[in-house]
């Protein structure tokens, strides 16, 4: 194992070439329009005055990271895990894998894909919970030069079908438990190969090549070794789907360079406390979510850590098993997960003080939850901030700060953050405005969304997060409001437009609007306001049943209220904020 990456935060400053000096070479293909991100000017001097957050960095963390040492994610993984071949990399309910076994099986998956006719740039959909198959497919898919499309295994047929159609995926890997949904969604898509993980018998499909995952790995391992395609940092690695403020699901194009950069950025911020080859991390967040994929899997993989996968964090037994069966030193989660952990009586006898890092994201970490964690572990939850479009980490608090800051911390190395006005111009320190980000982890654009790309970036190349916040003189970033109208349910982004479109198709609905309402358990829940025709008889039960058939469970409204009319602007636009702020006329 080379110590170069482990010591990335200690690279001699005279040798560090700011990775923001060069202009990204962007490939325009498939109707995609790259964003206008220009790298920082050659004469930019990074100082604590320009970037006040640098003074708050943990010991040894640099202002920049050098991404030029690695050309693609596979090279990064192979070079940083070479010394840990016999150590357990993945511990899951379906078995454990050493680092050597993980790489061997991922190469078999690469060989199978290439033999199946998958070419560099082709998309591979992966609809799996946290299990050993997920990291195998990720590394194997990237090794073949293909693009992994992470899909929520809770998706309905409608949601899956949209993602398959939009991405143009040629291969779909699916858990046997989600097979009925997958079968119903495939007609008319580009999927040519169906690979099924789990189940007792091989899956046979008429008119479609279908293969059990274990068989695909056996076949791939038996194939003659072929040379994998040459990949650069500019090659596309992931289509990470996000609803965006419009509610239309869009694929954020994340390159190998984006992922490498974010891994190195997280290593830089955590390297002073994480010990190479000595950590065990719990991954209860789903790996199809970019937080768990980049932070839990890729970053801690390069640290030589053991990764304990929890397939269903809503099952207390699985959470308890993860913490009682392993000597956990790192855990990540959303506010709800930490709250649930603290409430589990089975964990009362577990010494949480051996956990050196608890990293929170996806939703605001509540002070009371962090205080509860501190009382049990001696440390506060380290809150960070990120988006699918930024691979994902934008900022994180310093592990060396013992206090709970009620902030999202400091922008990570090689990242510039401004608080901007409506024109995208930077505002003075302390001002409230939209958080806009530039850095090597920022996506190259949205897949097949040229119009969205023109509005997603400022004229000088900063990504508009849509989140309102402030930056203070010490460099702390604080969120004041989230993306307009978005609802955050247990860390999952829920977009009202999508739910409204589903409800509107239900007979007996004249108009509808969806908002988020506070909830002690999940942070927020979905509430639907519906206007019925004068002779309407639609019931709450019918609305919920319809939504359950068309939406993932966390998107289904927990509350349905029938009202006489929706509040609207003078031009007829529904005012969702007014539904939060004041009582509305209730229908008889």
Can you walk me through this structure?
- With 588 residues, the chain is of the alpha/beta class.
- The protein has 3 domains: 3-71 and 262-481, Rossmann fold (3-Layer(aba) Sandwich), CATH 3.40.50; 97-231, Rossmann fold, CATH 3.40.50; 487-581, ANL, C-terminal domain (GMP Synthetase, Chain A, domain 3).
- Strands 2-1-11-10-12-13-14-15-16 form a 9-stranded mixed β-sheet. An 8-stranded mixed β-sheet has the order 7-6-5-3-4-8-9-19, with helices on both faces.
- β13, α12 (367-377) and β14 form a beta-alpha-beta unit.
- α3 (99-115) packs across α7 and α5 (157-167) packs across α6 (179-185).
- The longest helix is centred in the N-terminal third of the chain and has 17 residues, at 99-115.
- Residues 1-46 have low confidence and may be disordered.
SSE layout:
Layout: H1 3-6, H2 73-81, E1 88-92, E2 95-98, H3 99-115, E3 123-127, H4 133-143, E4 147-150, H5 157-167, E5 171-175, H6 179-185, E6 193-197, E7 209-212, H7 213-222, E8 236-242, E9 250-255, H8 256-270, E10 280-283, H9 290-302, E11 306-309, H10 316-325, E12 330-333, H11 335-343, E13 357-360, H12 367-377, E14 382-386, E15 393-396, E16 410-411, E17 416-420, E18 433-438, E19 445-446, H13 450-456, E20 463-471, E21 477-481, E22 487-489, E23 492-494, H14 496-504, E24 511-519, E25 523-531, H15 540-550, E26 559-562, H16 576-581
Helix pairs in contact: 3-4, 3-7, 5-6, 8-9, 11-12
